[in-house]
Every structure is written in structure tokens, then in C-alpha cells.
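Hey, sorry to bother you again with one of my protein questions. I've been puzzling over a protein and I'd love to understand its fold better. Take your time with it, there's no hurry, and the full record follows here:
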Amino acid sequence: MLEEKFLPLIIKERRHSFVFPLTVIKLLKTFKVAFSPIYDYATILPDSRRALNLISEALDKVADFLREVRIDYLSTCAPTFWSKKYAYYIDSWFREHKASVQVMYAHIIRTGNNGFEDIWKNVFRKNAREKVRKAERVGVGIIEIDTEDDMHAWIEDIH
């Protein structure tokens, strides 16, 4: 049986607030998973860019709370609209706590009526195409998503 609950956390740290929207799913009878409900847009969000250096301390509070309520697994991401510095703070916190970190990048391109081959050959420079092919050879997964349904299926798959 799957039981789902929403858990909007608000963390206060040195005059700053952080919002961390989570969905908690109880699998079977005992295993609880918390994850960001909106891929690419919802994770621990500071009230301003000045609060970025406090993310580590705020995540410590989140981890303590999740342990208290017996969450077994946390899955989240760094939203694409924040800076690389933000992603660095999130990534380094998880690595420091010896958590599994998987780096994923998603790019969405408005295509109009153009097909993949047309965009691939005419929008991306040869150098970029070569780098993508090289990345594929070393194990980077590249997924072509053609419809909104494909995107929803991909999002479900990564969660």
C-alpha cells in the first residue's frame, strides 16, 4: 500500500527563511521516502541569494527533522534557475554526508514545427554535437523527449 503526504518545511536560520516542499511516501509498512514534488523547481529554497552560504546549516536542520520523523530516504535536486554556487552548496552538503549524488541536466528547447534532426544539425554547432557524442560514449545518458507525456514519464522515472 502506498500512502502519500505533503510536508512543507520552513527552516529559520540567522534571519533567513528556507522553504523545502517535500512529498513523503510510505512504501509497504515501514519505509518512508521524502522527495521534491516538482522536479527542477522545488528543493530547499532560500529567501534571498545572500542566504546561499547558510544552505548547509539549513540542510542539517532538515536532516535532523527527517530523522526524527523516521524518513528513510531523501531525494531532491538543485533547481535550474539558481546559480552554480547554489548547486555547489547542495551537492557539497550531500557529498559531505556521504549521500549518493547523481548529477542530471535537463534542457528544454522550443522547437516549433522543426524536427529533432533539423534542430540538431542547424541549431547546435558541430563542436557541441561532437561533445554530446563524446559524452554518450563515456556513459552520459541522453534522452530525446518529443511530447509532454514523454516528459512526464521521464520525470516519474527519475523519481
